[in-house]
Amino acid sequence: MPELEKLDILAIAAHPDDIEITCGGLLIKMSKMSRKSGALDLTMGEMGTLGDTGEREAEAAAAAKVLGLSYRENFSLPDSALEFNQENKLKIATVIRAMQPELVILPHWQQRHPDHRVCSQLGYDACFLAGLKKLDVEGEPYRPRKIIYVSYFRNTDYSFLVDISDEFEQKCKAVASYRSQFADPVTAKHIFQQDVDIFDLMRTRAAALGQLVNVKYAEAYTIKEQMLIDDPQKMPVRSV
C-alpha cells in the first residue's frame, strides 16, 4: 500500500471512470473548497471491451489530476468477478483506518452491473468493521461519520442534489481522460446505451437533475438515514 494521508472524502468504486462519471462534479467542488479527496478503485476494468490495464491505469492517474485528488489507488481485484467476502472488506477497512475520511462515497446499492452492487456492500461493511477495536487489521479503529450513495442512472430515490454547474465541464474533462473508452465517438456509443454518447448522456442527465432544483447541472445522492435541518426557513429551492 502506498504512503497514505488523512482525507476528508474517500470515493470507492468498482472500475476506473466510475467515480468520474458519477461523483466527479462533487469531488471537483470539494477540491475547490480545499478538501482533501481520494479515490479507491477496486478493479482495473480489464473485462471491458476497450483498452487494457496499462492504458486504464495511466488514464486514471490523468483523471485524478483533473479531479484534484490527493490519493488514488487500485486494488486490482478481478473485474466482473468482484466478491463480497471478508478478505475484501478488510482490505478496504485498512485504507479507511489509514486515511480516516469523514465522508465516504459509495455506489448506490441498486445496480445493473454486479460489481457496482458488490462494491456498495463491501464499502459499507468496511466502514463498520474499521471501527471495531479488536479487528485484526493494521491501524487504529476509525469509522467515517457519513456515507452517501451516488446515483448511477438507474435509481430515483434521491435524498439531495448537489449543484455542479461550475464544475460540469471539468467533470467532462476528467471523463475524457479515459481515451481508450471514450475518444472514439463510434465505439464509445456502445458502452452505456446503444447509440448514446457518454458526454451527451452525462449532460442530459445533469441538466434534468439541475432543473429539479433550478440550477444548470446537478448530481444526485442518497443517504439511508434521516436528514436533520436546523432552520427550515433557510432551506434552498422554492416549494411553489
Q: Could you characterize what this model shows?
A:
With 240 residues, the chain is an alpha/beta fold. It has a single domain, classed as LmbE-like (Rossmann fold, 3-Layer(aba) Sandwich). The chain is 37% helix and 16% strand. It contains 7 helices and 7 strands, in the order βαβαβαβαββαααβ. A 7-stranded mixed β-sheet has the order 3-2-1-4-5-7-6, with helices on both faces. Helix 1 links the parallel strand 1 (9-13) and strand 2 (37-43). Helix 1 (18-32) crosses helix 5. The longest helix is centred in the middle third of the chain and has 16 residues, at 114-129. The radius of gyration is 18 Å and the shape is globular. The N and C termini lie far apart (52 Å). The mean pLDDT is 93.
Beta content comes to 15-25%
Helix content: 25-40%
- Global morphology: globular
- The fold-level CATH name is Rossmann fold
Unreliable stretches covering 5 or more consecutive residues: none
The CATH architecture can be given as 3-Layer(aba) Sandwich
> Which CATH first-tier class would you pick?
Alpha Beta
Helix and strand arrangement:
Layout: E1 9-13, H1 18-32, E2 37-43, H2 53-67, E3 71-77, H3 86-99, E4 103-107, H4 114-129, E5 146-150, E6 160-163, H5 168-176, H6 179-182, H7 198-212, E7 218-222
Parallel strand pairs: 1-2, 1-4, 2-3, 4-5
Antiparallel strand pairs: 5-7, 6-7
